[in-house]
Each structure stands twice: as structure tokens, then as C-alpha cells.
Amino acid sequence: MRAAVPIAIALATSGCQPKDGAKGEAPPLTWEADIAPVFGRAACAACHTDGDRDDDGKPDDVDGDGVADLVPTPPFLDVDPLEAVLGVASNQTFEMALVEPSDHLYSYLWHKINGSQSLAGGSGTSMPLGGTLTESDIELVATWIDEGASP
Question: Are 148 and 101 in contact (CB under 8 A)?
Fold first, then answer.
């Protein structure tokens, strides 16, 4: 009877695989689709901007997705925000990059949004200034980094 249970489970689930052979895993997170909107909702562009703002004083939404575009502060003006953080040494702790692809624990950006920057050898306040991200947003950023920090 014990052998019948695994066989029954195998038979019951054998038709559940997608036809293309995929195992039903979610695609990796990307900066554009998943992470930039998190920072846009958190109003990071209120501080991390090159000063380019709409007539209403709010940061521009250049790509028209309804989210203010995150632009890094100096010394990264006129640089793509993702290029400004991937593998770039933090100016608050030179022991780690702002984003170290595949390792959120060695990514200072994650420590800043997690509030653990002092444990990472850094300084300053957690981000976003005057607020916090949700636990699910912080976990989403960690997952994105751990998956390789895809654009």
C-alpha cells in the first residue's frame, strides 16, 4: 500500500507541467519591471535626482509609466541609475558595493533600505529618508540582487 501513494501522486501530477517543459518557476526579477517601481513608490527621487523636475516641482516621469524616475545623486549625475549602483563601491563603506549582484548581504543599498547600514560598516540613516519600505519590498530587492540584479 505504501508504494501506491507515490505512484498515485505521480499520476495525479504528471499532467500539471506546462507544455513548454518549464517547471512553473517565476521569471527572474528585473530592475525595470520590479525594482525601479519600488523605489519610485518610495519617493526616492525626491532626494536622488539631478534636479530635472516637472512644472509641478515633482521629479519627471520620463518613460511615462506613472512612476517618478529614480536618478542617482552626485557623483553619478547623467548616469543610468542601474549603472550607478551595480558593482560601484559605496561612499559610506568601501567594504562593499552599492549592489553586489547575487549577494544582497554584500550590497550596501540593501542594508540602507533594511536599516542595517551600521552593521555593514556604514553610516547615515536608513532609506528612504523619513520613511520605510514594506518588508515585502525589502525582500523583493534582496531577491532581485540574489538573482543577479538583472536590468
Answer: yes
* Residue 86, beta-bridge partner list: 99
Residue 150 β-bridge partners? 30
What pTM was computed for the model?
A: 0.66
Residue with cell 499532467: 15
Are the C-beta atoms of 88 and 97 separated by less than 8 Å? Answer: yes
pLDDT digits (tens, 9 = 90+) for 32-82: 999 988 988 877 766 766 555 455 544 455 445 454 444 444 444 345 778
**Alpha-carbon 70 to chain mean position:** 12
Quick count: other Cβ atoms within 10 Å of Cβ 105?
14
Report the alpha-carbon distance of residue 34 to residue 150 in Å, rounded.
10
